[in-house]
Protein 1
Amino acid sequence: MNESTPKQIIRLWYGGASRRGIARMLGINRKAVGRVLVDHENRMAGVAEVGRGRRPNLLDDFAGDLAQLLERNPGMTGVRLHKELRDRGFTGGYSIVRERLRAVRPLPQKRQEVFDWMRALLQGAVPHATLTKELGHVAELDKLLTAILEGKLSHRNRAMAVLARERGIGQSYVRSFLHISKNAATRYWKYYQNGGTTQLFAQRENSQKRSEDEDLKRAVFALLHAPPSTHGINRTTWRLADLKMVLRSQGQVVCPEVIRTIIKKAGYKWRKARTVLTSKDPQYKAKLKAIQDILSKLKDDEAFFSIDEFGPFAVKKRGGRKRVAPEESYTVPQWQKSKGHLIVTAALELSRNLVTHFYSKKKNTEEMIKMMELLRAQYRTCKTIYLSWDAASWHISRTLFSRIKELNEEGPSLGYPVVKTAPLPAGAQFLNVIESVFSGMARGVIHNSDYPALEAAERAIDEYFEARNHYFRKHPRRAGRKIWGLERVDSEFRESNNCKDPLYR
């Protein structure tokens, strides 16, 4: 706690703030606020010692010397007393001697009477008739009293300074009690003399806040736009303490709160960098254009599928985000026995927004052939179906393309659609729209789950996709929207659409 903090505590206390409120405003412990107020009350009452435990300090070893010096010269000043003690071996600073001197030496009688009167006035304990008798005719007395009892801190100090001056109290007492400067006390009196309470309580038009200083703003933003290392600071991001230090070296003396206000008003916010998925496929634009051409000309008797696998993932107690009670501790064991593993192979038809899925033991060409034959049979009424998947090896194998060629040769004669492929560029999983559905499924039925067996997890996933398909059959639309608030992005094919959830692995 620095030297000015006790003064701020006392001012806020007389301003009507509670101990808890003072602690919050100054960022200190509530017990520390209480100790300062107890010490202040004891000094006001002329109590020699404060009835509480006090931490030892360097002056304790010189208590006898201090008492001897004060007995010899009760009016010795703090500066002289500190010098005498230094000559006797005391190594502490002047502030320790000053605080001890305030605790052991009672206030002068006149000072005590003045402080008692001003404190009673702040507490509303002085009757109006008594004030009228003591002060005589004071212009706008009622407004001044209202400001003292109900106004904000700045207005209370101004009104108190005026009434104390009207009563004939010396300016030094007023300054000491209110903890204000000589210039402030003089300025308040001149305001009242020239324009009454209107000018006394008026907001100064020419008073510019430090945070509105254009030169200071330019200096702050000049620093923010340059790395700290350019100013000899071994950091990669700025701290308020670093900004304050560099600005002080440039002649701009400013506190961290003003710097924070300037930065906040300018709209600066903390942002965490996100890793943007990018594709290095040399045929990226050509493949993307081919897919967009297919979707732009897709007919009612055609279907376009986004296909991928989810998993493998272990069936065990899973973490996630959920609402918990204040007393509840939400944890997930690091080491768990798995109840089985799942791979969900699924296809999303973009124009109808319907999902077809099954469970696989492996990710291989056989599973892709199985999916292709399932979609071929399920969408038999279509003339053409397009299969779009990423550049995984089992998605582009020779066996898969050979099987597609065989089925296409005999398909039209048997009433099956023609199967065509529309492969995604390599490293472009952000274009695979099925990832959006997988993210929604994971948040809906996998995160925060603790299924007792593999079958229970499969049943939950089946019900999720069944409910989703039921919704889109009832409300058909080409480009889906976020389902029940669980899917990250709209089920739309866009180059800027990042369907993959970066928080999910």
Note: The two ends are 48 Å apart (CA to CA).
Protein 2
Amino acid sequence: MTNITGTTTCDTRGVADWLLSGARSASEPYQAVAETCERLGASGIPLWRVDVFVRTLHPNIAGRRFRWQVGSEVSISTTTYDAPATYESRKSLVESVCSSGIALRRRLTRSDCKMEFPLLLELLEEGATDLLATPLVFTDGDVHAALWTTCQPGGFTDEQIAGIEAIVEPFARVAEVRALRRTATNLLDTYVGSRTGQRILAGQIQRGHCEAINAAIWLSDMRGFTALSDQFSPRTMINLLNRYFDCQVPVILNNGGEVLNFMGDGLLAMFPIEDVGETAQVCDQALAAAIETRARVLSMPKLIEMEHLPPVRFGLALHLGEVLYGNIGGGNRLDFTCIGPAVNLAARLEKIAAQQERIIVTSAAFASHCQSQLSDLGQFSVRGFGTPQTVFGLPDE
């Protein structure tokens, strides 16, 4: 903005006040980044590009980068823990700022500008003239970073630098609040599943709170796990279990299911049925997931030959019915899971799969809604149920 004398001013107190009030008009992290940059621009800061780097607590993702650029939407990228190390990552400007906690400025077009980081040369080639890298210090002492760049000839003025510095601390508070909520969501999604996590965040945390829902129920179990545990080291068995569950969990999620519990080498999942008209579709998705899982597990010997493990064998039962889905536990330690006769029957069916030397079996209720062809295996007495249960299997087994 320009005052009555024609000189440029950059009063960012309004931006700081907006941030200190919680940036309520920008509920999502990318919205907070975009609106902060736009408000700074309206205050007289000639920003060209801003990159905000925030580390996160996630089993696969080390951190996220939010990039705002004039005329573009905010882009979001992630860094994974297994990303290959490169020269740029080993000699990173962002890592330097995060480890030192000290701001860094580089006037890129000046002949005496120190170009110790590869990113600086990239910015210069793209037309940037000045960069201010500021640490974003969270209340727990954790340090993240923001890079503020301009294409203004001659770079930022001292007043513009002061204007950016004035909003860094309140911007860090907003970034921390948004990051904490995302961390909570990530952890809940990781440990209890997205459907359950949404309920917990919505306040459904009272013991005994539950609801009856219809679902296709999945219960799988590895064969001979106890015997294997006696032969191999705990670390080997943990690696085996992780590979085994990798054959199931992504497939379940991709087909609309929710993983509820890991019970040693067993897995309980459900495929919720929101509308009775979707029953056949949900059953088909659950069976498709089971068939894909079977193929993945059968291919596991290629992964475990180096550890001299025998081929992995497992059984999987699919049932359809009503379950009670909610909080169960004692004291302040609760579990969000599903219980009921339908879950018990799925567990019994999985034992029948073992007896019949089959991998996948289903109940009659599930088979009656499944459009795929299933074979009638006959009736079986099931412990805890008064009448024999008709069991179905895949023709190719």
Note: The chain is about 40% helix and 25% strand.
Protein 3
Amino acid sequence: MVGQILVEKVFAPDDQERFAQISGDWNPLHIDALAARRTQFGMRLVHGMHMVLRCLEGAALEFGSLAPAALKVRFLKPVYVGELMTARIVSSDQNELRIQVEVDGVKVATLRLSLSGEPTGVIDDGRWDVQPVTTVARDLDFEALNGRRGEVAFAASPGAIGEAFPEAGRWLGRRRLAALAGLSRLVGMECPGTHSLFSALAVDFRRSGDGSELSFAVTDTDVRFRSVKMKVAAKGFAGTVEAFFRAPPVAQSPIGEIAKRVGRDEFRGQCALIVGGSRGLGEVVAKIIAAGGGHPIITYSVGRAEAEGIARELTNWGALCEVMRFDVREPALAQLTAMMTAPMQLYYFATSPISRRKGRSFDSALFQEFIAFYVDGFNNICAALQSRWGSNFVAFYPSSVAIDERPENMTEYAMAKAAGEILCADLPNLYPGVRVIRERLPRMPTDLTATILAGTSVPAIDVLLPLVRLVQEAGVTSNPGTAQADSGVPDTR
């Protein structure tokens, strides 16, 4: 039995929607692809409690004759929508069942289910009322979590719970299962709410709460780790839940603040195409150029509303700004046909999610994904720009200190960036008239670099303003090539 697979499941977007209806957890990290894009994960994550209930459904088929006594779960790594989850037995006897959840051989969660050794009896669930629940998560500050307490209503009827998890419903009882699903709503919608990440749970099925709903009370918060611990109770169990308060999306400085550092006419007459200018570092560059009287053209791949929001901010301030869709994975030249003005500069901030769950082995598919963004995409747009207008331009390529520092689990990223640097060195020979400026950027606050634990970072304006000035100066020189020195970028290595 050890090594036996209990469950194999690919969580599709429809599965996310159905579990949100059952649990009441509509946190955007699980449901909204665009909102998830603004997190450090970059993509939608599977509800942790959905995985747990699927594991309990599988366990019920094998161990349903023995009454469950307690459950401990620890979530170790994220699982992305569309991935295959495999839950397998790692040990079992009449007292305990241990389950390991994996994706591509990487351990992502562990479950320890204690068994009473007694036969499972008939569970009288009774009935409960289903009240309308909001689909908008609470947007709380970390400081507001301390001492927080309350109740979480069940989002689904007994029939809906039984239909979704029939075997687990018979084994544990549908009310108890509804309360377990409610833990997802507790963490994702109530406490910590919007900026949450489920970490662990431990519940005893031999204890029981008094209320008709799931109750919770925060018992401890730790600002160092941005963690929160809660006591929870419902009819059918009592225990504890642990969660993290993850970093919210990074708001870059408004153009009014940036303008205080930039000469009003410093970049007048300059037209710059900023690939990936709808957020993050590209957004900051667009605001620098606009504040200096230049004409930024910002691109987006999926975040049209974000790009248009930045354009409104700049035009309301009195600056120029255009918006266009551009996906570096699609043919470049066809996407540039709508542009009427030849850009004098290209800033290339296209990226895919950087922080990924990885195993010990080299991930060739992930490496090829990074190559598509950091090598192929940059080469293709440089070739397309020269083909479209046949004029000279300066291209800025942001490399990374990860090439030297080699952070854990970032081998593929660092390799792709190193390959991009080689392309930068040779690109002026491939496309005469193109001048490339490459800089290894330090860590700066962006959505993709945000983590649970605060890290050292340099303000984006301090790094990027000297580089924008360097790109402008390079545009007036006649000697094409690759530049990387005298940028004035703070050295954080």
Note: Residues 485-493 have pLDDT under 50 and may be disordered.
Protein 4
Amino acid sequence: MARAPRGPVSFGPRWLRAQLEQLLPHYPRVALCVAFSGGLDSTVLLAALAQLRAPPLQLRALHIDHGLNPRARAWSRHCTRTARALAVPLTVRRARIEPLRGASPEARARAARYRLLGAALKPGEVLLTAHHLDDQLETVLLQLLRGAGVAGLAAMPASAPFARGLLLRPLLPLSRAQLAQWAGAQQLQWVEDDSNSQLHFDRNYLRARVLPALRARWPAAARSVARAARHAAEAQQLLTALGAADAARAQVGAQLSARVLRTLSPVRRRNAVRFWIMQHGERPPPESRLREICGALLAARADAHPSVGWDDVCVQRTAQLLTLSVPAAGAAPAAVNWDWQAQPLCALPHGTLELRPDAHGPLDMDALPAYITLGGRTGGERLRPQRGGPRRTLKRLLQEARLPPARRAQLPLLFDRGRLLAVADLWVDESVQARSGSRRRARLVFHPLSG
């Protein structure tokens, strides 16, 4: 465990109370939940809040164990001891992060963390994270290097809607050095993540190699970049207001009029469509997809029914109207045990799945288990659709196939003890594919209710 030297500080519970009163109109009549990693920053935040705690303020903490570091369980135990010493209730959630080729481990861990935090947040509860001034500097620079737009350069806001409540970053005006000074004065202990020294992570490389040189030449870099981020946030507010006005003019119920969108300049058109998508609670598409929506999709013939998809979202044009399609919650088929030998037809909520004998079929019936579990997507599914080829994520296969999200949600998945065997009648895993010597072959045929 690490300690910091004692020294003069400007941070403390009184400063934090003033910050919370500014950010939360109903403070202290609020329920606060701290995202507690056990590191310096979140330890300072939790300890200062514990000193502020008094009815009617409610306080608890959440720790996410990513399981990526061999010391993760030890960190969880440290967090439990620290929270107990501060008399703060703590909940520990464990994330399961599957490796994914081409995906950043940092991004996957962050997504898993916020997914679990959001699921654990109670209605109206405020989630507090310990992001500070130096984190903001790193975030803005990383967004610049990734070619982000105005919204990305606005970086981390002090307050934003999140899950069923609010996400608050009260420490953003403070540097890490200021937090370390207070931690030393309080004789706090925290964990040091040894992965912070691994320079193949972008943020670690920036922190270790780039920022020291930057600060040596521009000592006020963090505060200057934070000010630029606030300017970008104000510019984004103006873009949002303009997008709301343009989208309102083009709106026909939940859809957008292609005719009205075509009257806008390309820049305003993209801004309006981006706003419309985000208004529905979806992440905006990559720039290439957005340009495709606002260009080729709008210019296509009225009877062409073009669509553009990304992730699990799709924009489709029918006649002169744009529709945003997303998977319906709970739309995937419930888990069903299928005795395919006794009953080759299986009725499902969204259609019927048939195992049809076929001398030229892609399935080897002798390689199938006696019982197959039919279920829907939960995330991270993979299979090897080409013999000798790489394992592919189902998400990527669906994206490449450009299936409408409503259709994706209907597809039954075939499992054997958690191992994905096939995706409806679209893809079959190598393990059950027919070979030249297969004696009994078959194919799957899915009959959706929609026809």
Note: The chain is about 40% helix and 20% strand.
